[in-house]
Structure prediction request, 228 residues.
Amino acid sequence: GAGVSQSPSNKVTEKGKDVELRCDPISGHTALYWYRQSLGQGLEFLIYFQGNSAPDKSGLPSDRFSAERTGGSVSTLTIQRTQQEDSAVYLCASSYLAGSTDTQYFGPGTRLTVL
Amino acid sequence: AQSVAQPEDQVNVAEGNPLTVKCTYSVSGNPYLFWYVQYPNRGLQFLLKYITGDNLVKGSYGFEAEFNKSQTSFHLKKPSALVSDSALYFCAVRPTGGFKTIFGAGTRLFVKA
Prediction:
């Protein structure tokens, strides 16, 4: 079956512009996560969705970052007024449930470059 | 603060030799432990996880990991390395009952023919 997909694969934008990154999780997966991977660093948790529950936004670095998940499936991460420090690979992952033991399946990521 | 440490930025191994990629963690309680691998231009792939039971966990591609509670470690191992194992490896920890996964900074493995 299809894995997690993300689009675009690469995004180059100018400082101050807004960007939207899309994630399509594996069909049937109820949990969805966004992470940021900066050069030479590990994955930084951003936000988590589980079913119809309110998302956990505790990892979002500033109010310029927001995310939605429509219909319990597709998710969009929006970064407003992008800054150069936002340049990173943004990874999306999904899991069947949200239990502690569940394996997360990752998409290929979106590489964001802010000039 | 909860954290995961991968003390080696890079590990170099000759093909056919055993390999170890180290991971230690500082998380309260009895966390669940994961290893992921990232090949060039590809997303993270799950390798293995420790939930409970036998301290030696076997995973994909011939990898295994040993959980040591007293040393709070979860080192990744493989008896005989392949050139195709060259990739970036991430150790991850999830506290019991939680959903947030804490990732290490990653260790780049180079296997030389």
Observations:
- The CA atoms of residues 16 and 81 of chain A lie 4 Å apart.
- The interface with chain B takes residues 3-4, 31, 33, 35, 40-43, 45, 48, 50, 56, 59, 91, 93, 98-101, 103-109 of chain A (CB under 8 Å).
- The beta strands of chain A are 5-7, 10-13, 19-24, 31-37, 43-50, 65-69, 75-79, 88-95, 105-106, 110-114.
- Chain A has a mean pLDDT of 91.
